[in-house]
Design goal:
By secondary structure, the protein is α/β, with parallel strands linked by helices. It is built from 13 helices and nine strands. It has helices spanning 2-25, 31-34, 47-51, 55-64, 76-79, 89-100, 131-148, 173-179, 188-200, 217-232, 253-264, 305-324, 359-376, and strands spanning 40-45, 67-70, 104-111, 155-160, 205-210, 239-242, 245-247, 269-278, 329-334.
Amino acid sequence: MRTRQTITTMSLVVLLANTVPCMAGQNVPALKDVFTNHFLIGGALNRNVVTGRDPNAAAIAEKHFNTATAENDLKWQRVHPRLDQYSWEPADNFVAFCEKHQMVVIGHCLVWHSQVPRWVFLDDSENALTRDALLSRMRDHIRTVVGRYKGRIKGWDVVNEALNEDGTLRNTQWLQIIGEGAENKQYDYIENAFRWAHEADPDAELYYNDYSLETSRAKCDGAVAIVNHLKSRGIRIDGVGIQLHGSLAHPSVEGLEYAITSLAATGVKVMMTELDIRTQARGYRGADVSQVSWQNTNDPSAAAAETQRKLADKYAEIFSVLLKHEKDITRVTFWGVYDATSWIGGSPLLFDRSYQPKEAFFAVVKTKTSHEGRQDGTDGEP
């Protein structure tokens, strides 16, 4: 009898250990409600979140987000792994989860140089495709994927990370093959991607998305050039996503404001699409996925009180800028739900590995009160 009671007690302890963090983490203001009159708040969701295998993360997303982006399952490699094969179930699960919880659905991404299968650029003899063949392959992919979710996915990151740090176009296979090395064709693959996405769903918003726009003025100017080119050709583009993979030292207020105001001046929406802040002080600082791993972003001091205070201060600074420019900002999306789901490891998000809101969470919430105080001439305190 005592053995049975012990087993029952131990089972209850295990159950509570798995549920208490989620319950405790929910006893805070919902971010989507805090910023309801300012901009949408969202996160990048992975398969475990949308299928219920990570119920605590799903609970955080349901409570705090009114928009969500597919972290991986709408990228070419996942949704279209072979020429004659599409894999719809993971993406379908993501869209269904968002619809169930009334989240604005964002599709990420249609054309990117990374996480795209090798076969996309090759013919049956393993030779590089011709310009026309690659355009045809890209058109079929975009029409098929966007068409499947017509009326369900509100916005698409149509082209992702097409720029170098100096603002020139990245020399990807998309550019090499479709551009054919000709200056007058350099934007051709971008043009056609946006055109075909619009044809597949005329009501969907279409975005260009990139990193370091808030730290490199040259790169930001390159994004402005893309927008202006598309507009000059009569091609729909609704917004530019600033990924904003930050650190404790960047972006500067001046850099972030330059990016927001420069992009908004083109007449498009501006959004923070992949927000996180890495805490390690050394190593690679950029967001090139080929150079980032949990090994080179590992930070043994990430959980230290001093590090968390600096993280909170940087998040507060960023959100203060976003609120200042709220007329131009439509969406803020964190790249993940809680620290354990982050692509860069460490402690980059607002919820820790136990699903608990961190000091940074409360700092972000407080920026709303401070902003309202500045608006009405008080000190921002209740």
